[in-house]
Amino acid sequence: MTGSSTQGIKTVLHPVSDLAAAKAVYTALLGMPPQHDASYYVGFDAEGQHIGLVPRGGPQDTASPVAYWHVTDIEAKLAEVTAAGATVKEPAHDVGGGRLVATVTDPDGNVLGLLQN
């Protein structure tokens, strides 16, 4: 199979209704404070995995956590997965520092994230 490859799932974002309450739970779960702590995003880097908390109602709002597949070329991967039957939910956009994210839904409505550093 040809096309752009993925680097695996390295980021999982959890939509939460109360960022401060969720931060306390994830801090206890992971045994460390967040490395990124802002009013719009709280992120933990644990054992090579990035766990993020995002407020519900924002652009990345979903009913459940979204796993983000890290890719080298987000536009190429978006083209490949949509050609294969996925639907773009959130087009690629910069979330800061040149990091690009996008989401698609598979034929069953599951949300899949793509992330390019």
Quick synopsis:
With 117 residues, this protein is α+β, with helices and mostly antiparallel strands.
Describe the protein in words:
The protein has 117 residues and is an alpha+beta fold. The chain has a single domain (6-116), classed as 2,3-Dihydroxybiphenyl 1,2-Dioxygenase, domain 1 (Roll), CATH 3.10.180. The protein is 19% helix and 45% strand. The protein has two helices and eight strands, in the order βαββββαβββ. The chain has helices at 19-30, 74-83, and strands at 6-16, 36-38, 41-46, 49-55, 66-71, 87-94, 100-105, 111-116. It has an eight-stranded mixed beta sheet with strand order 2-3-4-1-5-8-7-6, with helices on one face. The protein is globular. It starts with 5 loop residues before the first strand and ends with a strand. The model has no long low-confidence stretch (mean pLDDT 91).
Task: Describe the SSE topology.
Layout: E1 6-16, H1 19-30, E2 36-38, E3 41-46, E4 49-55, E5 66-71, H2 74-83, E6 87-94, E7 100-105, E8 111-116
Parallel strand pairs: 1-4, 5-8
Antiparallel strand pairs: 1-5, 2-3, 3-4, 6-7, 7-8
Distance from N terminus to C terminus (CA atoms, Å) equals 24 Å
Rg from Cα: 14 Å
How many beta-strand segments? 8
- In which range does the helix fraction lie? 10-25%
Question: How would you describe the oligomerization state of the chains in this entry?
Answer: single chain
Look up the CATH topology: 2,3-Dihydroxybiphenyl 1,2-Dioxygenase, domain 1
Q: From the 3D coordinates, which CATH architecture would you assign?
A: Roll
Number of distinct helices: 2
| Biggest sheet overview | 8 strands, mixed
CATH superfamily: 2,3-Dihydroxybiphenyl 1,2-Dioxygenase, domain 1
